[in-house]
Design goal:
Helix 5 packs across helix 9 and helix 6 runs antiparallel to helix 8. The protein is about 60% helix and about 10% strand. The protein is built from 11 helices and 6 strands. Strand 1 and strand 2 form a beta hairpin. By secondary structure, the protein is of the alpha+beta class. The longest helix has 23 residues. Bound molecules: zinc ion (ZN). The site of zinc ion has 7 residues, from helix 5 and helix 9.
């Protein structure tokens, strides 16, 4: 019996892989992106209703977040169109919100639902560094890392159940899984960390996305140096899995020439 289940799971894993056109990497993808976006929309609205959202009309911080978000989303929409990669943003309805919190954090759920916590802004200090972090979070979303993580969890914890079935049969567990995947809610410490490969992809494409929007990607270096000395409570998602600041900085240096090409073209 165990053997049969194992074979079935192997079958699910082999047939459930999709080639990601952004990264060129094969990913486990058992979940419909549209299903994830639907779930994201509802969780996003719940989160906003339970937190203090700042308005860009009266808050300088929220105005910054809106401006950076608008520039990045516009730039990557245009860029993907020139590359024939419009499908990466299928179903996206961008929303950028700033919530008052001392946590140093930000995230982007499927479909382009972004939140930045005010605790991040004293560390980013300028919009180019804010663009690096928002670009990183948007890259996780566009690279479908959440789908990959949810798919892995459905195989490991729910025997390869479809998301709709999991939602119907184990609604609470499935919702918890989703929240942990995106690091939402007060228990950031309970978040499932992204893999190192996912983090590296988010750094690489995040740098490119901020450069496409006309922000100087070199600000990333100073930002990560500031970040490594910033204290605070539970670590934000973008610090969760990196082996060391030094490794991250080395990789950023490696990605920088490519990002600079986009930056120079945008300015
Ligand atoms: Zn990350």
């Amino acid at each position: 019996m165990k053997k049969i289940i194992y074979l079935l799971l192997t079958f699910v894993i082999l047939t459930g892989c999709a080639l990601n056109i952004l990264t060129g990497r094969k990913q486990l993808s058992l979940v419909q992106e549209s299903e994830l976006q639907l779930m994201a929309k509802s969780e996003y609205n719940t989160f906003l209703s339970e937190n203090k959202v700042l308005s860009s009309g009266s808050s300088r911080e929220a105005a910054s977040v809106d401006r950076v978000g608008a520039r990045i989303s516009k730039a990557i929409t245009k860029y993907f169109a020139t590359q024939g990669q419009e499908s990466l943003l299928e179903g996206y309805k961008w929303e950028f919100n700033t919530v008052e919190s001392k946590d140093i954090n930000a995230w982007c759920m499927p479909g382009g639902k972004v939140v930045v916590y005010t605790g991040l802004l004293p560390v980013t200090k300028n919009e180019a560094a804010l663009a690096v972090v928002m670009g990183h979070e948007i890259a996780h979303s566009v690279a479908k890392h959440g789908n990959e993580r949810m798919s892995q969890a459905l195989v490991q914890q729910m025997g390869g159940m479809a998301l709709s079935v999991a939602l119907a049969q184990k609604p609470q567990e499935t919702q918890d899984l989703f929240m942990m995947t995106y690091g939402i809610g007060s228990e950031v410490g309970a978040m499932l960390p992204w893999s190192r490969q996912q983090e590296t992809e988010a750094d690489q494409y995040g740098l490119i996305f901020s450069a496409l929007a006309g922000y100087d990607p070199r600000e990333a270096i100073a930002f990560w140096q500031r970040m490594s000395t910033a204290g605070g409570g539970s670590p934000p998602e973008f610090l969760s899995t990196h082996p060391s600041d030094e490794t991250r900085l080395k990789k950023l240096e490696k990605f920088m020439p490519e990002a600079m090409k986009y930056y120079n073209a945008a300015n």
